[in-house]
Structures are given as structure tokens and as C-alpha cells.
Design brief:
Blueprint (H helix, E strand, L loop, with lengths): L2 H7 L5 E6 L9 H7 L9 E4 L5 E6 L5 E6 L5 H12 L2 E7 L5 H13 L4 E5 L20 H12 L17 E6 L10 H14 L3 E6 L3 H13 L6 E5 L7 H9 L5 H8 L4 H21 L4 E5 L4 H9 L3
Parallel strand pairs: 1-2, 1-10, 2-5, 5-6, 6-7, 7-8, 8-9, 9-10
Antiparallel strand pairs: 3-4
Helix pairs in contact: 4-5, 5-6, 9-10, 10-11
The protein binds flavin-adenine dinucleotide (FAD).
């Protein structure tokens, strides 16, 4: 089933979903199942699986020179989606990027997803690779997420890149897109970011999942501003608990979001690692409770391989 159908079926009741990362190359899928199993009692209607581009690493050769090798550390997004759907009978949402894909490769990936009866995709641009200063699309690839949304939408209408295909099978993907309550870091200002978000929805985006935030005011303001410009699709809040002290720096650095003063102070003065975790969990519980009281469609947790923490939060909410 599509994510928007799950939301409609929820009839205004807040649902629970989460996002997982594929295991590191060389690890077994069992590690994924072990993480998902404890959360299944809360009946998530869908589970997202992230996509990770290739990175370059440098291997020292016998000659002393370094060899640059491209590797994907976490391959397997589509395979994991299929395995999740098969094992748990819940819908999986693969993340699909512009970065690293030509439009033809995207089309082929979508054909595979369609054959696997995967009805959902989260359409994203992706980030610049670590050694690049800005995002560089592939030659004949999609530049912005909106271009990817348009490509998927075209396939939903039966159009393929190869114009020789007539009466092509129409796919029926539900398309999610990303939204940034605190603005995407590259956007010159919030209004322009919102303008481009609206473009993604007008192009065929069915719902929005937000970047993580630690102050619900950011989410509520964001929803209000979206509605004011005519973005009327469901907006799913993305949540992540702080569990380690170093995240006070790494989260703002990597995700360009603010940590509220009260949370930063509490984490900063916690007596040990266990106390930090308790503070982060409690903060996330309070955020979740307030969002649920405001009837958000779904609470979507960035699990990052730590289902025990997410379970603690979710069992005090659902
Ligand atoms: P876009 O919507 O294309 O926006 C990127 C920037 O370009 C923004 O600043 C926007 O304002 C601007 N812009 C958009 N359209 C135009 C235009 N037509 N002209 C000029 N400027 C424009 N990354 C991964 O690698 N793998 C994942 O699995 C993954 N999952 C994610 C899940 C969620 C819920 C979120 C919020 C992010 C995720 N990301 C993931 C990170 C994401 O790829 C980055 O945040 C990326 O920098 C932007 O992606 P986007 O789809 O929002 O891009």
C-alpha cells in the first residue's frame, strides 16, 4: 500500500514509522532484522530504507602510492526493502537519489522496484560527496529532487525515456519528498526553499518527511508556512533522540539544525554517558507527545541502528 493510503486509513490517528540504514558491506541482513524485530509490536505501516552513494577511499599500495577506490559502504537498499516486505508484510520505502544515477539508471531502478511491487519512493537529490564542494549531478542525471519527481511521475503516466516504447506500463509510485523546517543549508533563504518545496509537490510529490528538529515550534511554523503557500499534502515530522554528548556538535554540523539551549545545557552538564542518553530520550518523548497531541499524521524516527532507544520512546507514546 502507498504511504498516503496508510495516512488516509489512519483517519487522523498518529501512526509510527522509522528509517533504517542498510548494513555495512560484509554484514548480514540479520543485523537489520534484529533491529526491526523489537519495533514490530508497534505496527509501523511502513519502514524507510536509506540510500548511500559510493565514496572514495585511499588504499596504500606496496609501491607506497595510494590508490583511489570507489566503494559503496552500504549497498542493498532495494534488496532490503524487498526482504522487509516479504518478512514483515509491511511496506518499505526505498530512498532514491539523483546523485550517482543517470536518468536511464533511475528508470531501470524504478522498473526493478515496480517488479518487486514496491509502491513507495522517497525522492531525494542527495548530498555532495565528501571530496566535492557542491553537489554534482551525473551527466544525463537529475539535478534536483524535483527533476526526479518529474521522472517518476512520467513513468506513472506510462512514459519512458525511450520514446519507442508506446503503451508503456504505467507505474503507480507514491512519491515522498524531503522538507526542512529550519531551511535546507544551501538555500539562500527560507522562502526560496519553500518555493522549491512547493515545486516538488506541484510536480507530483504526495507527502513530505521533514529533516529532524529538536524544537517542535520549527515543525509547527513550517507546516503553517507550507499551508500558506498552498502545500496541502501530509507533512510527517522526522525525529531523532540525542544519545551521545558529541552529537551536540555533530548534529548541527551534519544536518544544519539547532539544538535548543535547554537541551544543550542539560546534555552538556550530564554526569555521564548514561545520563546523556536519558536526557535525549526524555526530550524526544516530550517532543513526540506534543506532536501526537497535535494529530500529526505519523511520528517518523531516524533509528540509526539503535532500536532499543526508539523502543523506549515509542512505548511511552503508543
Ligand atoms: P532538493 O529538493 O533538490 O533541494 C536541494 C537544494 O536545492 C535546496 O537548497 C533547494 O532549496 C534547492 N533547489 C531545489 N530545487 C531547485 C531549483 N529548481 N533551482 C535552484 N535551487 C533548487 N541523503 C542520502 O544520501 N540518502 C538518503 O537516504 C537520504 N534520506 C533523507 C531523508 C530525509 C527525510 C531527509 C530530510 C534528507 C535525506 N537525505 C538523504 C539528505 C538529502 O539528500 C540532502 O538533504 C540533500 O542535500 C537535499 O536533498 P533534497 O531532496 O531535499 O534536495
Amino acid at each position: 500500500m502507498k504511504v498516503i493510503e496508510h495516512i488516509e486509513n489512519g483517519k487522523g490517528k498518529t501512526q509510527f514509522s522509522f528509517e533504517i540504514l542498510p548494513p555495512l558491506k560484509g554484514k548480514n541482513i540479520q543485523t537489520i532484522f534484529e533491529n526491526i524485530d523489537p519495533l514490530m509490536e508497534f505496527k509501523p505501516p511502513f519502514i524507510d530504507v536509506t540510500y548511500h552513494r559510493e565514496e572514495f577511499i585511499y588504499n596504500k599500495r606496496d609501491s607506497g602510492y595510494y590508490e583511489k577506490i570507489a566503494i559503496r559502504k552500504r549497498p542493498g537498499t532495494v534488496g532490503i526493502c524487498a526482504a522487509i516486505m516479504h518478512r514483515y508484510k509491511v511496506d518499505a520505502v526505498p530512498h532514491l537519489l539523483c546523485g550517482g544515477f543517470t536518468k536511464n539508471e533511475t528508470e531501470n531502478a524504478l522498473i526493478d522496484l515496480n517488479f518487486l511491487n514496491i509502491k513507495n519512493v522517497l525522492a531525494l537529490r542527495g548530498d555532495a560527496r565528501p571530496f566535492e564542494k557542491k553537489f554534482i549531478p551525473e551527466e544525463f542525471g537529475n539535478t534536483y529532487a524535483v527533476d526526479l519527481v518529474r521522472q517518476i511521475k512520467k513513468m506513472n503516466e506510462g512514459y519512458y525515456l525511450d520514446s519507442n516504447i508506446v503503451n508503456g506500463n504505467s507505474t503507480d509510485f507514491c512519491i515522498g519528498v524531503a522538507g526542512y523546517p529550519e531551511k535546507h543549508f544551501e538555500a539562500p533563504n527560507f522562502d526560496m526553499d519553500l518555493h522549491y518545496l512547493k515545486e516538488k509537490i506541484d510536480a507530483g510529490g504526495d507527502y513530505i518527511v521533514t529533516q529532524m528538529f529538536f524544537d517542535n515550534k520549527h515543525y509547527f511554523d513550517f507546516v503553517e508556512k507550507c499551508r500558506a503557500v498552498g502545500i496541502n499534502v501530509p507533512i510527517i515530522p522526522g525525529l531523532k533522540p540525542i544519545t551521545k554528548a558529541y552529537q551536540l556538535q555533530s548534529i548541527p554540523r551534519n544536518f544544519y539544525v539547532d539544538i535548543p539551549n535547554d537541551l544543550a545545557k542539560a546534555v552538556g552538564s550530564a554526569k555521564d554517558a548514561a545520563a546523556v542518553k536519558e536526557i535525549g530520550i526524555e526530550w524526544c518523548i516530550q517532543q513526540s507527545k506534543e506532536l501526537k497531541a497535535n494529530n500529526v499524521p505519523c511520528l517518523h524516527y531516524y533509528m540509526m541502528g539503535d532500536s532499543k532507544t526508539i523502543k523506549r520512546i515509542v512505548e511511552s507514546i503508543f
